[in-house]
Each structure stands twice: as structure tokens, then as C-alpha cells.
Amino acid sequence: MSVLECKDLCKSFGHAQALDHVSLAVEPGRIVGLLGPNGSGKTTLIKLANGLLTPSSGEITVCGMAPGRESHGLVSYLPERTSIPTWMTTTQLLDFYGDFYSDFRRDAAEEMLAHLNIQSRQRIKQMSKGTREKVQLIMVMSRAAKLYLLDEPIGGVDPATRDYILSTIIGNYDPEAAVVISTHLISDVEKVLDEVIFINQGRLVLQSSVDDIREEKGMSVDELFREVFKC
Amino acid sequence: MRWQFSNDAPIYTQLIRQIKVGIVSGGFPPGERLPSVRDLATEAGVNPNTMQRALMELERDGLVYSQRTAGRFVTEDKAMIETAKRGLAERHIKTFLEAMLNLGFQQEEIVSLLRQETGEEETNHVSSGM
Amino acid sequence: MLRKLLKHEFRATGRIMLPLYLILLVTSFGANLSARGLLNTQYRILDVLGVLLVMAFGIAICAVCVMSMVVMVQRFYKNLLQDEGYVMLTLPVSVHQHIWSKLIVSAVWFALTLGMVILASCIVAFDIDFIKYFFQGLGELFGELRHVEAYYAINGTAIALEFVVLCFLGCCAMCLMFYAALAVGHSFANHKMAWSVAWFFIFQFAINILGSAVIIFADATGLDYFLTNYIHFGFMAGIHAAMIFMIICVVVYGAVFYGVTTFFLKKRLNLE
Description:
Helix content of chain B: 55-70%
Helix content of chain A: 25-40%
Largest sheet of chain A: 6 strands, mixed
CATH class of the largest domain in chain B: Mainly Alpha
Strand content of chain A: 25-35%
CATH class of chain A: Alpha Beta
Distance between the termini of chain A: 37 Å
CATH topology of the largest domain in chain B: Arc Repressor Mutant, subunit A
Oligomer: heterotrimer
Largest sheet of chain B: 2 strands, antiparallel
CATH superfamily of the largest domain in chain B: Winged helix-like DNA-binding domain superfamily/Winged helix DNA-binding domain
Structural class of chain B: mainly alpha
Shape of chain B: elongated
Strand order of the largest sheet of chain B: 1-2
CATH topology of chain A: Rossmann fold
Strand order of the largest sheet of chain A: 5-6-7-3-8-9
Order of helices and strands of chain B: HHHEEHH
Radius of gyration of chain B: 17 Å
CATH architecture of the largest domain in chain B: Orthogonal Bundle
């Protein structure tokens, strides 16, 4: 069964059509890149999958159910900006995730935090922006979820942090789960992807495996992307 | 081990070649247990499925074998490693020769140039630090 | 899950409210001290200190009351409609549970604030002749009232209880009105806060209009006449009936705002 499935999914904000009849499916065990230029509808799609928006028409399902309370327990979501409550200490944040998610692996999270030298009594507020982002990623990847939805996890970070983020994702996701990574920085994520989904102006342009693209077209996904989205 | 990838070929074929180089050069000695797929993938910064695919191919070639519970091991068959070494060397030489022919060198010129470069020594299959 | 939400909600708000209560109690001791001896001494410095302590107490009371309101509004706004909303609204928790947790926590802080203000006032008044007289006077007044009560056969306790319930429910309904205004305002693409304020006034206005409409309706149709003359309400029963009617009204408009809030959080959410 597909972990994430869209059928004729449309979403408009007033007159602006953010998603236009998108149909796609993401299978378990795959790392999928959701690729497209800024404003192509990547974030809208991810928000719809999280129930933070409701579709204008069409259908979106997560593990066979409409986004809602039940699906939230199966999805681990990294929003495009850091949104963990800043008044909490690291310990309180661990309590918080442990309380609400039965699949939260607290020891894994603690190990990763210790690796970054983050003290348990330190408040999120006192951390730098980069550290907060890493802490939220650690929380998200410490869950044994069925679907990870990562919205721009490597946007606006330095190359060393980028490597850290990507290796954290690869090293921690559940092999039975699907990972969706939205980004416009393709060359950086290409190596970790099984599959790519190109969207542009709310429309699905292409869904293909990375190996197929390289084998058939003899070019990297990054090169193909530049060709498809040439201005 | 350092992992590097180019844009023209699928990642898994590049992984196969680099693991082969690791085995041939002794980075992964014969009979040694390989790290887990996830660890190797994390180290190389690639998708674990891709790493899995590369290892399966190597397994099919016989350079690597897996034991159900203990994990994957490098083959102890020295002859097989030697063949793999030959194979890699031949590929290097082939591309080298193609490039030299493209530049307009004749076969004898290439050989003498190689002699000069390596100091008149008998050099057969050693690809000179390309 | 509601219990877990409440736990973290109390953690988040307690770190603001509890220190404020502590400050209130400390300043009330100060005010007590100054009322006992610092005012009207020969030393000006002590006089000034006394006045300052009493002022501090006054400010602390205001601060506690204002903050319990601010915390109520701000928790809903920051926790659900700002960045934190991304984390909170993707928890395996229903929107109903979110709203109830916010409402219950606000109600508890309102009640505690009332309790603390009364406690602090008692501390200030402790063992001071003037206030003792004041309370004596108050007691006499209540004594008089009790005669009146006997005279009219008023069930004072029941009315007091009804009044307390009405106040409490009124506070909750007001919370819900704030929530509804914020939820509706934040469904707009731009000027979310301005829209929220506008909607708050629209709701307020609507309630006033409806309230007046009910009175005018009762007046025009002779409903009040019917009630007083045919059902033979006594004076007391009339007050009870009015109280219960008002409680029902408050519950109804609270429920309406609850419905509006859930609808907008579920269907019209627009986090940015």
C-alpha cells in the first residue's frame, strides 16, 4: 500500500492555483525528492499531507487515510521553519515528543543531542538558529514513523551542516518507511534519493527513479532539472 | 575511504567500482566483515537502497558474500581479487589509450613515453598514477 | 491525550503565572507591613517607603489579573496559530482536545487568580484595626441583608452560587470569543492580527445586538407580561429564572464560538 497518495489533488488560494490535478504515489522504503523551483507547490503538498491545509478538490491519503489525528501518529514532519516551542529545555522537549508519540526513540534522540554537545537543561531559546534546526531534525528523525515529510531540510545551511543533516536522515529513518524531502538544492540531495518528483507551477512534471534518469538520459537529476525548468 | 561521484553514471555503478577499488587496494582486506549497509550508506552519503543494490551486484560477482546473520564479508579468494584488480586496471588502460590516441599519439610513442615517465623500468600493466 | 496536552500547557503557563502569584503575595506582605506601621511616622523616608509598598501591591494585583488574560490569548495565538502551530497541530491530537486544553488551563488560571487576589487582600488586611472595623461594618451589613433575605424569603446561597457559575461560564465564553476571533482572523491571507481584532469587535457587536433583540422581542410580544402574570413568578423565582436564562445564553454563545473555532482550525487553517 502506498504511504502517500494523491488523486487529482487541487488546492487554490483565492484565484491562485497552488496545486493543479496532482496524482502521485509514494511507496514504503523509498527516499523521494520532491523537487521544484520556489513557489511550485512543494510546501502546499506537504502541508496538505499533514492536514494543515484542506484540499480544494481531489484526494490525499496517508497510509490509506485522510490526514487527521490518526495519520499524525504515523507521519513525522519537519516544517520549513523551526517551530519547536522555544521556552522548553531539551529535557522538556524530549518529554513532549515522548508523551505524544509512541514511536519516539528517546535514547536515539539523547545520543544525537549528546553528540552535538547540547546540555539537557539548555533552553531552545538560548540556542543559535542552526542548533535549533538540528534539534528539531533530531526530534523528527528519532521517531520510527511510516512517513517522513521533510520540508526544505537543507535550505540555507552551510555545506558541513548539510552533510550532517543528510547523514542524520539516512542513518535514522525507518527502512520500512518512506521519506519525502522537498528541496530546490538538487545536487546536494541527489545521492540519497531513490526517486524524484518534479513539480512546477502546481503541476506534476515527472516522477522517476534516479537510476533510470542517469541510465537512460546519461545525466544527473540536477542536469535534467536544469533542462526541464530552463527559464 | 573517500567516496566521490560523477554525474554521468548511475550512483550504484559508481559505488560498485569504488568498493572494488577498496577491496583490491586492501581498504577492505580479504575475509573481513563489511560495515552494515546503513553505515556504509551513511559514510558515503548515499541512499541505503542504492548501497544495498551495489552490494548485491558485488555478491553476484562473488567479490562479497553474505552470511545470514553475521553480515557481509569480503571474499577470501585471492585469485578472484586478482582478477578484479586486472579488470580495473584494464579499464584504466583502455581509457588512457583512448585519450592518447585522441591526442594523436601512435602506439609505439605511447609506450616509449610511458618508459620515460617511469624511468626506463620494465612496466607492463602498471598504470602510471593516472 | 487531553491529559498530556494539559500537562504541557500547565508547564508552559505555570512558569509565568506562578512567579507572578509569588510576587503578589510578597507585595501583599509589604503592604500589610506599611499599613501597620510605615504610614504616618515621623520619618519621611519611611512614609515614602510605605506608599511605595502599597503601590507595588496595587500594581501586582493589576499585573496578575492582566497577565492571566494575556496568557490566555497569547497561548492560543502563539501555540496554535504561529510557528509552534506546525508542531502542535500535527500532534496525534484532535482540534477539540486542543481547544479544551487551552480553555481548561485558562479557566484554572482565572479561578486561581481570583483566589490569589482574595488571599493577598486577606494578608494585607490581617490584624489592622481599620480594616477590622471595615469588616465589622460589612458583617453588620450582611446581618441586615439576612433580615431582608428572611423578609423576602430569598435563597441567598443559591443566587450567589448561580452568580459564581455565571461569572465562571462568562469567562470561559469570553475565552472562546477570543479564540474564535483569532481563528477567523488568521484564516485571512494578510493582516491576520488586524482581522482578528476586527472579528473580535464584530462578535462583541453581534452579541450586543442579539441581547437587545431578545429584550425587545420579550417586550414587544408581551412575553415578560405573560411570564409575570400567568406563570405567577414570585420575585425570587424571577431572579432564579433570569439567572438560569442568562447562564443558558452564555453557554449557547460559548458553544457557538467553540463551533466557529473548531471549524476554522480544521478547515480554514492557513499557517504561514
